[in-house]
């Protein structure tokens, strides 16, 4: 198994992550369609 998959616990495909400048996951969504509004809100919070 890929190290990134383990590091970010991204076992469901697809897994969408927003990773902050410090490398911390600030938003995650696993499976299904991307909730674009939620991802953009997480990006804008940085």
Structural class: alpha+beta
In round numbers, the mean pLDDT is: 89
Q: Which word captures the global form?
A: flat
Strand order of the largest sheet: 1-2
Q: Which percent bin holds the helix content? A: 25-40%
- How far apart are the termini? 31 Å
Number of strands: 2
Radius of gyration: 11 Å
Low-pLDDT residue spans: none
Strand content bin? 15-25%
Number of helices: 2
Oligomer: single chain
Total count of domains: 1
Order of helices and strands: HEEH
Q: What summary fits the major beta sheet?
A: 2 strands, antiparallel
Structure, explained:
By secondary structure, this protein is an alpha+beta fold. It has one domain. Helix content is 33%, strand content 24%. The protein contains two helices and two strands. The chain has helices at 3-8, 36-44, and strands at 15-19, 25-30. It has a two-stranded antiparallel ribbon with strand order 1-2. A hairpin with a 5-residue loop joins β1 and β2 (25-30). The radius of gyration is 11 Å and the shape is flat.
């Amino acid at each position: 198994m890929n190290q990134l998959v383990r590091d970010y616990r991204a076992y469901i495909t697809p897994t969408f992550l927003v990773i902050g400048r410090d490398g911390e996951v600030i938003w995650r969504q696993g499976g299904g369609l991307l909730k674009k509004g939620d991802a953009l809100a997480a990006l804008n919070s940085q």
